[in-house]
Amino acid sequence: MNVVMIGAGYVGLVSGACFSEFGASVVCIDLDAERVERLAAGEMPIYEPGLENLVERNLNDGRLQFGTDLAAAVSEADLVFIAVGTPTRRGEGYADLSYVYQAARDIAPHLSGYTVVVDKSTVPVGTAAEVKRIISETNPEADFDVASNPEFLREGAAIGDFMRPDRVVLGVESERAERALRELYRPLNLIEAPILVTDLESAELTKYAANAFLATKISFINEISQLCEEVGADVHAVAKGMGLDGRIGKKFLHAGPGYGGSCFPKDTLALVRTAQEYGVSSRIVEAVVEVNAAQKARMVTKIRHALDDTVSGKRIAVLGLTFKPGTDDMRDAPALTILPQLLDRGADIIAHDPQGIDEARELLPPQVSYSDDIYATIEGADAVVLMTEWNAYRGLHFKRVRELMRGNVFVDLRNVYEPQTMRDHGFHYACVGREA
After folding, report:
1. Which of 18, 228, 263, 431 is catalytic?
2. What integer is the mean pLDDT of 275-303?
3. Pairing of strands 79-82, 2-6
4. pLDDT tens, 332-374?
5. How far, in Å, are 61, 263, 319, 332, 396 from residue 152 at the CA level?
6. Is 431 among the residues known to form the active site?
7. Residue 87: what pLDDT?
8. Rounded to an integer, what distance in angstroms lies between the CA atom of residue 179 and that of residue 357?
9. Which member of 111, 116, 252, 398 lies 3.0 to 4.6 Å from 142 by CB, making a disulfide possible if both were Cys?
């Protein structure tokens, strides 16, 4: 099958590479000529484990191409996926659909033969219908269907998620569109991956509802962690006790500094705005957003308290900047909220991250300094703040850390270490939802 992916960002690049691995002939189109040139040379603009090898293999085998010539690619396509960005409109919470609608206008004149146009971007309910209207008005002769095929990729595990998905959701309006998409996903039949076929609106809402529910679990356990600290309970024990209930499950019950990334912050806000547009209550999701913001602010207070309520003039070594391990993505990372507030209070911050430093330089204040060595970051620090739970931070040499530090404060915002172990090594240890 001939597949065109409009957009070679995170979703488009991963999806295009994986479809080519399935055996499809894939062309990823992007307006950024420099990005296309780098990709064609096998250079990845993002960090995602396994992606570079996957792209290189399918480039060499001729199943994957990158280009800027939309007209030529679309005219040969069986399926055209729209995988462009849908950022939150500043100050509003609404998803910015201008890139999606422009993509629809751009591809419409070049559709040739029957084509399925698929929304792969995360979009609010009603977007597929609007894409259909735009294409029909732009090219009344086009023989096409619009479908919704939301992605459920976790950054840091995207290749595995695509190849071994929990489910594939297909929102369609015709049997022809369903057949085309089932054929594209046919390799997943070997592992009997569930394929849910539904209407357009249900498919669109499924992605938002799933992400909002996962964000709810995170905010819930973060609120419980605050109560645990006040009553002397251990949030690890509470979360384990909850998670062993099959109706709840153990995933996303890890207390920390709040969620971030490209999906949860954006999608929860967009779901709230969609509900408001239709006059429907969304009080739970609204509370999730508020709790997440409060949790990040609470982490600033936690760090200050660990340093006797003053960070002015204190050197703070920060381990981890990205919103989660396994990615270089800094979008809405807790570090973007926490570190500027510490700087405003006079802290001297030096940071380390295995993959996110280049991105962090663009987003964090220039006063933050960086090191590419963990122990050089820690040297001379009054406090160490473990912000992101990269594997590189899970086995720190405690004796060496204590010798390098000027102070002894260790603030573990991911609960990587056991409180008693840290106390035994001479640290003044603070964590989230546990008695330190």
Report:
1. 263
2. 96
3. parallel
4. 999 999 999 999 999 999 999 999 999 999 999 999 999 999 9
5. 27, 10, 28, 19, 33
6. no
7. 87
8. 44
9. 111
Name the token pair of 320: 């981890």
Pairing mode of beta strands 195-198, 168-171: parallel
Place of tokens 């850390």: 401
DSSP state of 188: G
Six token digits for residue 125: 């309910």
CA distances from 259 to 215, 232, 240, 349 (A): 7, 24, 20, 22
Tell me the average pLDDT across 5-22.
96
pTM: 0.93
| Whether 269 contacts 197, CB under 8 Å | no
Q: How many residues does the chain have?
A: 436
CA-CA-CA-CA torsion for 64, 69, 75, 77, nearest 10 degrees? Answer: 20
Q: Please enumerate in sequence order all residues whose Cβ is within 8 A of that of 3, keeping only pairs 6 or more positions apart, or say none.
A: 16, 19, 24, 25, 26, 27, 77, 78, 79, 80, 81, 184
Please check whether residue 37 is in contact with residue 74, taking contact to mean a CB–CB distance below 8 angstroms: no
User: What's the one-letter identity of residue 74?
Assistant: V
Instruction: Dump pLDDT digits (tens) for 226-271.
Output: 999 999 999 999 999 999 999 999 999 999 999 999 889 999 999 9
For residue range 183-200, what is the model confidence (pLDDT) as tens digits? 999 999 889 999 999 999
Token pair listed for 38: 């780098």
Q: Residue 408 and residue 282: Cα distance in Å, rounded?
A: 44
Residues 295, 367: contact at Cβ < 8 Å? no
CA distance 142 to 135: 8
Instruction: Characterize 88-107 residue by residue with b for buried, 16 or more Cβ atoms within 10 angstroms of its Cβ, and e for exposed.
Output: beeeebbbebebbbebbebb
Cα dihedral across residues 137, 139, 143, 148: positive or negative = negative
> Which residue stretches of 116-199 are H helix?
127-138, 158-163, 175-184
Query: Which two structure tokens, joined as six digits, stand for 299?
Result: 């982490």
Among the listed residues 356, 349, 355, 358, the one whose alpha carbon sits nearest the alpha carbon of residue 385:
349
DSSP string for residues in 306-363 = HTTT--TT-EEEEE--SSSTT----TT-HHHHHHHHHHHTT-EEEEE-SS-HHHHHHH
What single-letter amino acid sits at 208? Y
